[in-house]
Model the fold of this input.
Amino acid sequence: MEIPIELVVSLSAILFGIGVVGALVRRNIIVILMSIELMLNAVNLAFVAFARMHGTNDGHVFVLIVITVAAAEVAVGLGIVISLFRNRDTTNVDDVSLLKW
Amino acid sequence: MIEAPNLRLEALAPFAFVAIGSLVVLMGEVLLSRSESMRNAPSVDVRIGTILSFLSAGFLLLAVVVAAQAYMSNTAWSFNVDNPMMRLDRYANFAIGVIGTAAILVCALSADYLNGLRIHHGEYYALLLIAVAGMILMVSAVDMLLVFLGLEMMSIPIYVLAGFDRRKLRSNESALKYFIIGAFASGILLYGMALLYGATGATSFDGIRAGFDPDNALAIVGLGLLVVGFAFKIASVPFHQWTPDVYEGAPTSVTAFMAVTVKVAAFMALVRVLTGAFETTIEPLQDILWVMAAATMIVGNVMAVIQENVKRMLAYSSIAHAGYLLIGLVAGTGEAHAAVLFYLFVYVFMTLGAFAVIIVLAHRGKDAERFDDFAGLATQRPALAALMVLFMLSLAGIPGTGGFIGKWSLFGAAVKAGQVPLVIVAVLTSLVSVFYYLRLPVVMYMRDPSDEPRRMTTSSGEGFALLVCAAVVLILGFFPSEGPGVLLLDNLRVLHWARDSVAFLP
Done:
């Protein structure tokens, strides 16, 4: 069965959109982190689909690098959230507002 | 049979020195703190901090020397000749030289400042070196893959550094904001790269350039997302809101590092991406950059006026400078790009100098960051106040300082390229900037000192950094001429360096 490339790219765009909206709208830091991960996964899906379309390997290599970097990024992000939680007992971004204007 | 790849290890030399340096520093702390002679010595942490700061400065110096040598011999090395992902040409070497020098000065500034905050950790220097290694990858990349990898390798350590003072709430908050915005921005940047790959079938700059079709919606959206991703990193309006918060909350030595090196790396990578992977005459791109440049200058300069915190004021000032630099990208000629490089060169030293004065004044773990903290500085520490005046004048672009020559060459190149309205905006907003830059000298010279105790000493590292910054700002401020033969640095020479570097852009 053929899956048209448009479908896959649309799915990736929808996932990316959900990720962007989630990162902007949600107030819980953990949920924001998950939304950002969703954005990166949408990127991966797009890369794999395009690599298949073009028949080159560049997209696959890119996906591997993105997965690795995303893992490192999340590790650091969770570390920052933990150090904040120890000081403030909160994971809500609205409570994190000492610095303004 | 598999053919052996044609590799040139020399191309990795600056990167390798810094990357190995970070591992050595990381191990060095463990080994030093366990050694007999150290364990019994008084104030071990302070000593280890000093040793590590010298060690990391040494590795950075190696990278700078290698880059300078490669620059002089005018080579362009690729690591893998058949399938180049990076190219160590004059452009990359110029960037490495500037970034490395700035990082050395930050190392010199950090040791005593960290002692004052009582955060002694070898990781600080290791993270700093990893970030520099990432910047080196980023500026020498000729493939989107390496641009992304370098960008992340630069950003992730700086997220940690921003939150390095982890008991302080403001440092936590700064790290969190920087992390969320940074990760979000790299997601957008990546999606842009994915769409460009879909439209052109390539991730290398040359491949994208060959396959780019301005009528293809996918390609244009990809380019737009790419520019937005970079706009977050260079702190351009409307993606600048994180900057003041992050600059204010982070430890000042980290703020200084972020303000100068990240700006240089992101800008030089952006120039390289835009000139390498795209025809500069793409209409929508020019329009977007035009609007971004104008908005960045206006918002940055106007918002800086109402700040009460010097670090925040400098953050808005760095936004404003990003706006001036964007003019060079809008103009898009070789001369404008050379002027951007020259301006970045000056920007590094004047901004670092201003932050250095704040660092020198940090007392007992408390930053002197409010305007009131500077009251009467001229009577108590006249030399330091004079230096601060010099840096402020240079940031404002007053003649006689490097900042003036930088603005002059940048605006001149833009006028030649026909960007007169943008230059008018730039000159008007520069006038506004004089107001807030001169506020600090007024506070220092016209007001009486408060009763609060003030730090009256300057460590040798801080003195070194201040002197270097002041010397560069002054020397570059002379009227453009070939300096006396002994002077290694005069503004014409730096401008020549910039021109020769830009010649390597396609």
Observations:
- Chain A has one domain: 5-90.
